[in-house]
Design brief:
single chain, alpha+beta, Elongation Factor Tu (Ef-tu), domain 3, 3 domains, six-stranded antiparallel β-barrel, 5 helices, about 20% helix, about 40% strand
Length: about 220
């Protein structure tokens, strides 16, 4: 489990294809000091398991699923990636609950400077859009961000200067692809309500609750 608070930006040193899977090597300045074999690290929001580590680098295997469903399938040498180690029991939950299980890939449509920060407009697949609400949370390349606006096929997020400078947001341009993970709580709520509406017994009561949540923009 992660929080979406990026610890540092690393750089892809190598992505080596191994049949349908791959091995990735990432250079980093800080987190390697506290990494052990088997540890989990979020790389641009994708949860990977450390298979080797040394001074200023670590390696991890990338599954066929991750290559196909995330931007890691297009990773290349020199690419900047957001890095976050898994939570410990004493960690502060500064962002929101992030699993590192990417739900889909979005595309940056626009980047605008607003005051001292930046606003990003990101298009997303319909199945992701249905989980988003204004002022809710979304992970973009593993960064916990607050949704500032919503449209039919996209959403907007506002980033403060610190977040921009300390993550790969600083280099994002229109047309760039990003990994998206929606709030796990939203997934459970939507699944529970849909199953509740379709089941017998409490159907009428659940349907009323679903309508109220829908009217409020929560589903």
């Amino acid at each position: 489990m992660f929080t979406g608070i990026v610890e540092e930006v690393g750089t892809v040193k190598e992505l080596r294809r191994l049949g349908r899977e791959a091995s990735i090597i990432v250079s980093c300045h800080e987190i390697w000091r506290d990494l052990a074999l088997g540890d989990s690290v979020a790389v641009n929001g994708v949860c990977l398991t450390v298979t080797a580590a040394g001074e200023a680098w670590f390696a991890a295997d990338v599954s066929e699923e991750s290559l196909a469903r995330t931007t890691l399938g297009r990773a290349h040498r020199g690419l900047e990636v957001n890095l976050e180690r898994a939570l410990t029991p004493s960690s502060r939950l500064g962002g929101h609950i992030v699993q590192g299980h990417v739900d889909g890939v979005g595309m940056v449509e626009a980047v605008r400077k607003v005051g001292v920060g930046r606003n990003y407009e990101i298009s997303c697949p319909p199945e992701i859009r249905s989980y988003l609400v204004e002022k809710g949370s979304v992970a973009v390349d593993g960064i916990s961000l607050t949704i500032s606006s919503l449209s039919e096929g996209s959403f907007g997020v506002a980033a403060i200067p610190h977040t921009v400078s300390e993550t790969n947001l600083r280099g994002l341009r229109p047309g760039d692809k990003v990994n998206l993970e929606v709030d796990i709580i939203a997934k459970y709520v939507k699944s529970y309500l849909e199953r509740g509406v379709q089941s017998g017994g409490r159907e009428d009561r659940m349907h009323t609750l679903y309508e109220k949540l829908s009217e409020g923009g929560f589903v």
